[in-house]
Amino acid sequence: MTAAVRTVLGDVPAEQLGVCDAHDHLFLRSPLLPGQELDDPEAAARELLAFRELGGGAVVQWTPRGMGRRRKDLAALARATGVHLVAATGLHQAVHYTAQQLERVRDRLAAAFVADLTTAPVRAGLIKVAGGFHGLDAHARHTMAAAARAHHTTGAPIAVHLELGTGALDALELLCGELDVPPGRVLLGHLGRSPDTRVHLRAAEAGAFLAFDGPSRAHHATDWRLFDALTALAEAGHTDRVLLGGDTTTAGARAATGGGPGLPYLVGTLRRALARELGEEFARAAFVDNPARAFAADWPPPP
């Protein structure tokens, strides 16, 4: 087995990933966002081309099962644009699904996740799960247990949606304690939405990856705290734990076809600002070196 990032076009050596948007969405639909679906392949292609022109090399889509992830379209976009794309399996919070959708998969989640990661025509490269606001409900615990089983079978990283940035330590306690997932295989998302430096430092000390996934049009109110949070992590010696993403969740938030800021802002404006404020070494770690480690796995051989 060789450590590689599992993209929609196959496994790629981690060092070839390049500048990475570690958390974004090219396709997404949810009953919580009526009329704001990300469902246009042509608009996604324009966004990716703008991203690539600014030096972007890879985008990790955290859209899980049942939310319009469109893996075949992701594969076509990767071929057309030359950008590495990573798809997700997993499940979001229960509110994003109908009761019938959840009932169909509830008792076979782990097997479904493993199939998405190992035998699907277009394979996923990470498992997306979600916590609740300041805690974990029964759905989150059930889904995380299935994700842990799938991780132990495949080695895939587990990405955690933290509701409004909360519940990071609860998620780590369950996944890395009770469920025995190595902390370095856990990616905690949306931490910028709850800028509690003490929690950030504890999560980094535990060995998890910390994803700050703004700027996002829907969550811009936390953007101004981003540099304070990153500076605290850097000063504590945790530069190697930081990931950055744009988390574009609506069509209107695209740069190429909407009001932005979108993928180009992340690798253009924000990356330059990080290099200026925290140094080029920090910017390279956050955009290149850390994603290469976070998303790589020793994938089992094909069945």
From TrEMBL:
Modified residues (N6-carboxylysine): 128
Domain of life: Bacteria
InterPro entries with a match to the protein in the record: Metal_Hydrolase, Phosphotriesterase
UniProt keywords, alphabetically: Hydrolase, Metal-binding
Cited Gene3D superfamilies: Metal-dependent hydrolases (3.20.20.140)
Alphabetical list of PROSITE patterns matching this protein: PHOSPHOTRIESTERASE_2
Pfam families in the record: PTE
Metal-binding listed as a keyword: yes
Family affiliation: Belongs to the metallo-dependent hydrolases superfamily. Phosphotriesterase family.
Name of the protein in question: Phosphotriesterase
